[in-house]
C-alpha cells in the first residue's frame, strides 16, 4: 500500500514555509512589471479557440484576457478582464480533492482513488477498469467524479451545499452557479455520462451515480472571476489560510498534497511540459481559467477561453510561464544564475 509518510510531510512543510524568504524580495514594482510584461506579450495572441463541445462555452468571447497575481499578504495586481465571470470547470477539482482530504485524510485519497498521472486526456476512460491496474487521480474527470461521491454528508442533499460553501471559503466570498452553463453542460455531457456509468459498474462510487454526476456538473459550472480564482490559489500558497478573510480553510500538511496533485496532474497530457516550462503547481479548466501557486509566496490566475488541443488556455499558460521565468518562481529553480529570457514557451 502506498503511504503518505511523516518524513515526506515534514520535508514538504519545510519547503512550504521556507519559500517565504523569496516573497520578501518581490516588491510591488517587480511584480507589476512581470504581470504587465506578460499581459502585453500575449493579449493579442490568437492561437486556440473556446471549447466547442459545450454549447455555452463555444460562444465565449475569445478576446477576453485577464491576469491576477495575489501575494500571501493580500497584495493584488490585476490586468485585463479580471472582473469577468466564467465557469471554473476543472480548476475546481483540486479544491474538491482538498475537501475529501480534509474530511478523510490524504491516505484515504491514495488508497481509495489514487494520485498517479494518467498521461491521457482529461475525459479518458483510463483507470476505471480495475483489473487493468491503470492509474487514476482526482484531477481527471473519472477521478474527479469519484471524489465528489467521496464527500461525507449525513444526507445526500447536503453534498452540493457543503461543496459550494467550501469553494466559497477558498474564494473568500459566496460563489454562485452559472445556471445557463449548467443547463448547457447537463444536456451535452455525453462523455461524462459514460464515465459515471462505468464508474458505477466498477464499484468506484460512494453515492448514487446520477446525483454524483449532477453535483460534478454543478461544481464545474460555479462562476468565478480571475480575481476570485487568484484568492483561491493564494489560500493554497498561504498554507491553507485565506489571505483576505484570514480563515484557515485547509490544514497545511494537506496543502502540500493538493499542490503535489496539481504539479503532477494539473494539465493532463501537457502536465510534463508545464512542469518543464513553468515549474509551478497549477490547474486549468476548459472555461479558460488557470490557477497557479508559488508556495509560500503568491498565486497567479488567468482567464482566456482560447484553448490548446489538450484543453488548456493558450494565453494563460504562456503568461504564467513568462511571469514564473521573470520572477524565478519555479519549484525546480536551484537558486543559481540562469537566463530568464530563454524561450520555453513552445509546446511539444
From TrEMBL:
<dbReference type="InterPro" id="IPR012338">
    <property type="entry name" value="Beta-lactam/transpept-like"/>
</dbReference>
<keyword id="KW-0007">Acetylation</keyword>
<keyword id="KW-0378">Hydrolase</keyword>
<keyword id="KW-0732">Signal</keyword>
<dbReference type="GO" id="GO:0004359">
    <property type="term" value="F:glutaminase activity"/>
</dbReference>
<feature type="binding site">
    <location>
        <position position="286"/>
    </location>
    <ligand>
        <name>substrate</name>
    </ligand>
</feature>
<dbReference type="GO" id="GO:0006537">
    <property type="term" value="P:glutamate biosynthetic process"/>
</dbReference>
<comment type="subunit">
    <text>Homotetramer.</text>
</comment>
<feature type="binding site">
    <location>
        <position position="141"/>
    </location>
    <ligand>
        <name>substrate</name>
    </ligand>
</feature>
<feature type="binding site">
    <location>
        <position position="268"/>
    </location>
    <ligand>
        <name>substrate</name>
    </ligand>
</feature>
<dbReference type="InterPro" id="IPR015868">
    <property type="entry name" value="Glutaminase"/>
</dbReference>
<feature type="binding site">
    <location>
        <position position="90"/>
    </location>
    <ligand>
        <name>substrate</name>
    </ligand>
</feature>
<comment type="similarity">
    <text>Belongs to the glutaminase family.</text>
</comment>
<protein>
    <recommendedName>
        <fullName>Glutaminase</fullName>
        <ecNumber>3.5.1.2</ecNumber>
    </recommendedName>
</protein>
<dbReference type="GO" id="GO:0006543">
    <property type="term" value="P:L-glutamine catabolic process"/>
</dbReference>
<feature type="binding site">
    <location>
        <position position="216"/>
    </location>
    <ligand>
        <name>substrate</name>
    </ligand>
</feature>
<dbReference type="Pfam" id="PF04960">
    <property type="entry name" value="Glutaminase"/>
</dbReference>
<feature type="signal peptide">
    <location>
        <begin position="1"/>
        <end position="23"/>
    </location>
</feature>
<feature type="binding site">
    <location>
        <position position="192"/>
    </location>
    <ligand>
        <name>substrate</name>
    </ligand>
</feature>
Amino acid at each position: 500500500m502506498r503511504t503518505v509518510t511523516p518524513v515526506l510531510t515534514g520535508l514538504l512543510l519545510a519547503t512550504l514555509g521556507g519559500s517565504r524568504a523569496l516573497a520578501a524580495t518581490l516588491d510591488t514594482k517587480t511584480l507589476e512589471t512581470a504581470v504587465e510584461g506578460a499581459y502585453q506579450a500575449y493579449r493579442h495572441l490568437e492561437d486556440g479557440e473556446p471549447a466547442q463541445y459545450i454549447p455555452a462555452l463555444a460562444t465565449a468571447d475569445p478576446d477576453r484576457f485577464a491576469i491576477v497575481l495575489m501575494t500571501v499578504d493580500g497584495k493584488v495586481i490585476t490586468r485585463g478582464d479580471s472582473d469577468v465571470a466564467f465557469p471554473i470547470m476543472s480548476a475546481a477539482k483540486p479544491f474538491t480533492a482538498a475537501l475529501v482530504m480534509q474530511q478523510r485524510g490524504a491516505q484515504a485519497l491514495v488508497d481509495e482513488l489514487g494520485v498517479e498521472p494518467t498521461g491521457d486526456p482529461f475525459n479518458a476512460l483510463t483507470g476505471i477498469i480495475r483489473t487493468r491496474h491503470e492509474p487514476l487521480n482526482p484531477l481527471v474527470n473519472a477521478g474527479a467524479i469519484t471524489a465528489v461521491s467521496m464527500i461525507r454528508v449525513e444526507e445526500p442533499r447536503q453534498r452540493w451545499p457543503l461543496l459550494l460553501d467550501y469553494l466559497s471559503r477558498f474564494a473568500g466570498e459566496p460563489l454562485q452557479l452559472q445556471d445557463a452553463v449548467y443547463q448547457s453542460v447537463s444536456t451535452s455531457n455525453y462523455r461524462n455520462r459514460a464515465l459515471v456509468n462505468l464508474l458505477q459498474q466498477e464499484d468506484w462510487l460512494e453515492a448514487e451515480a446520477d446525483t454524483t454526476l449532477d453535483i460534478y456538473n454543478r461544481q464545474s459550472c460555479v462562476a468565478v472571476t480571475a480575481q476570485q480564482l487568484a484568492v483561491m490559489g493564494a489560500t493554497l500558497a498561504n498554507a491553507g489560510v485565506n489571505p483576505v478573510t484570514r480563515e484557515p480553510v485547509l490544514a497545511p500538511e494537506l496543502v502540500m498534497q493538493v499542490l503535489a496533485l496539481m504539479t503532477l496532474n494539473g494539465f493532463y497530457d501537457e502536465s510534463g511540459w508545464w512542469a518543464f516550462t513553468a515549474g509551478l503547481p497549477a490547474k486549468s479548466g476548459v472555461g479558460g481559467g488557470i490557477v497557479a501557486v508559488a508556495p509560500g509566496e503568491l498565486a497567479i490566475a488567468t482567464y482566456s477561453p482560447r484553448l490548446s488541443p489538450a484543453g488548456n488556455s493558450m494565453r494563460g499558460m504562456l503568461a504564467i510561464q513568462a511571469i514564473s521565468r521573470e520572477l524565478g518562481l519555479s519549484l525546480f529553480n536551484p537558486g543559481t544564475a540562469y537566463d530568464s529570457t530563454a524561450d520555453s514557451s513552445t509546446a511539444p
